[in-house]
Design a protein that fits this description.
Largest sheet: 6 strands, mixed
Radius of gyration: 35 Å
Shape: elongated
Low-confidence stretches: none
Helix content: 55-70%
Number of helices: 19
């Protein structure tokens, strides 16, 4: 165990502080019954000196173990956050389809921070207080079983109050965490979509919706806190009852005399010390209930298994040549397993061919390339690359040889050079420049003041849609993919730029098997095969000329677009 040695040291130091705090009443008893009662000034000073020395030792031990625990808990949380982030990266696209980015962000930040509170409090509060409680109860029973009943009287009340809070408060804190997650998601969407909000003059409606979400969050918090607040009076009532019982037993059962005032004083202190850990444990329990919902949300994600993952015995696919086959493929998305998007789809694409996928929105064009990229598993049938069933090869070896471009390619904050070399950091400057020039991205990059060292913000802020798309194109081409997937990749580029891009990639497409999803039919006229996708299957296929001669679905689409 990584922290075994430190935890042993922390435990020893905690036991030292517990020992010091629990022997004080014994010193008080001796001082009153022996030194003060008998007038022994020298003994009194000696006892006072010992108590001061113990206080210094306790203070030093406490400072050391609290510092060590802060380091341990911070390291643990950093590791948990790292593992959570890595695990989220491994989850399939279905995970992100079903959850707003803001809610995922809330898990990685707020919920993990709440988990840190649980871990830190467990050591700084739970362990010392339980140890103190055990020692105090043991000393009280040894010194006077009868007076110890004063503490036992309050236990049923405390247990009942704790049980009641556990049942009700935990559910309410879970509700509160969900409301907090909703607020984070709404803020994230508001920031991402601020241009849309402003363009529709919807600021007032957005503010009202935000106020409603915040109101629900406040109400949920008040409902949860109201239960927690009930537990403190329970502790105080129990303390009062225990104190009254102590004095009653001392007077009626033990007939306390002057020479045993010290013993009674010690028991009063021990009774107070008995309830102090209980108060602290109650506060810890409230914090635990508050943050337990966050911990559950963290481990809920950690326990998720990705729908798409390597089998136990996979092999790395060799260098891809480019032959692709869909064999009787049927597919339905995980959230609607009974609704087939594709049904019994079969086709072949030979190496070096350019395959265009056209058809109405929602027909399944993107689904086909997503299955080839193995973002999802097929429901039935197989997808083969060079004769290998991609379900039997490692995901990394497959995707490392694919080049995937979508309509909304993400650019990261950093320089343009960093973004182009993102998929291949070891590429040379010449290779990077060649990729940029091939798609004519160099034309505008070289005109910038800092050229390829120009810094851009997240999502490529400061660049036009066309410029962002050209940089993404250069990034994809730099990886030298064996199979190229272009999913509406030129939709954000103006017509003039699109012509330049088409010229730049024409030779590159000849060397690769390429799948092009396009709504602009003018961009795929030169494709080797055009598949018209609709109703879960391939309605017709051929090249542009043969499909136009058929005057079928493709003819209707093309004619409607250029009418």
């Amino acid at each position: 165990m990584e922290y075994k040695g430190k935890i042993v040291i922390v435990t020893v130091l905690i036991l030292i502080t517990v020992f010091v705090s629990t022997v004080y009443p014994l010193f008080i008893e001796k001082i009153i019954d022996d030194e003060i009662y008998k007038g022994n000034v020298k003994g009194l000073l000696t006892m006072a000196g010992v108590m001061v020395a113990l206080a210094v030792i306790s203070y030093g031990a406490t400072r050391i173990w609290r510092h060590m625990m802060a380091e341990i808990s911070n390291d643990l949380i950093m590791n948990i956050r790292r593992k959570l982030y890595v695990h989220i990266q491994e989850l399939g696209v279905d995970f992100f389809d079903q959850r707003p980015a803001g809610k995922i962000l809330a898990r990685v930040t707020g919920d993990v921070n709440a988990l840190k509170e649980v871990l830190a409090s467990t050591v700084t509060n739970l362990i010392p207080e339980i140890a103190t409680l055990v020692v105090i109860v043991t000393i009280m029973i040894v010194k006077s079983p009868i007076l110890s009943l004063s503490a036992a009287v309050a236990v049923p009340i405390i247990v009942f109050g704790l049980y009641l809070c556990q049942i009700i408060a935990h559910k309410r804190w879970q509700i509160w965490k969900k409301k907090e997650s909703n607020m984070t998601a709404f803020i994230h969407e508001g920031i991402e979509g601020v241009s849309t909000i402003q363009s529709f003059n919807a600021e007032e409606e957005s503010n009202k919706e935000f106020e409603g979400i915040v109101g629900e969050l406040v109400d949920a918090f008040r409902a949860a806190v109201s239960i927690n607040d009930l537990y403190s009076p329970t502790i105080e009532i129990s303390f009062g009852l225990g104190t009254a019982t102590l004095y009653y037993l001392a007077v009626t059962k033990l007939h306390v005399q002057a020479e045993s005032i010290g013993t009674l004083s010690a028991f009063v202190l021990y009774l107070s010390m008995f309830f102090n850990p209980i108060r602290n444990l109650a506060n810890y329990y409230n914090k635990l209930i508050t943050n337990l919902a966050s911990a559950e949300r963290v481990y809920e994600i950690m326990d998720m298994e990705p729908l798409v993952k390597d089998k136990d015995a996979v092999v790395d696919i060799p260098e891809i040549k480019g032959d692709v086959e869909f064999s009787h493929v049927t597919f339905a998305y995980p959230d609607e397993p009974d609704v087939d998007i594709l049904h019994d789809v079969s086709f072949e694409a030979a190496r070096g061919e350019t395959i265009a996928l056209v058809g109405p929105t929602g027909a399944g064009k993107t689904t086909i390339v997503s299955l080839l990229s193995r973002f999802y598993n097929t429901k039935e049938g197989r997808v083969l690359v060079d004769g290998y069933d991609i379900a039997d090869v490692s995901i990394q070896s497959l995707r490392s040889q694919l080049g995937i471009m979508t309509q909304d390619n993400y650019l990261f904050s950093g320089t343009i050079r960093d973004n182009i070399k993102y998929g291949r950091p070891d590429a040379t400057e010449e290779e990077m420049l060649a990729a940029a020039k091939a798609v004519h991205a160099d034309d505008f990059i070289s005109q910038m003041e800092d050229g390829y060292d120009t810094k851009i913000t997240e999502r490529g802020g400061g660049l036009s849609n066309g410029q962002r798309q050209l940089i993404a194109f250069a990034r994809t081409l730099l990886t030298n993919p064996k199979i190229l997937i272009l999913d509406e990749a030129t939709s954000s580029i103006d017509t003039k730029t699109e012509i330049l891009v088409q010229q730049g990639i024409e030779e590159l497409l000849k060397k690769r098997t390429s799948f092009v999803v396009a709504h602009r039919l003018s961009t795929i006229k030169n494709a080797d095969k055009i598949f018209v996708i609709d109703d879960g299957g391939i309605l017709e296929w051929g090249n542009h000329e043969s499909l136009m001669e058929k005057k079928g679905a493709y003819y209707d689409l093309y004619s409607a677009q250029f009418a």
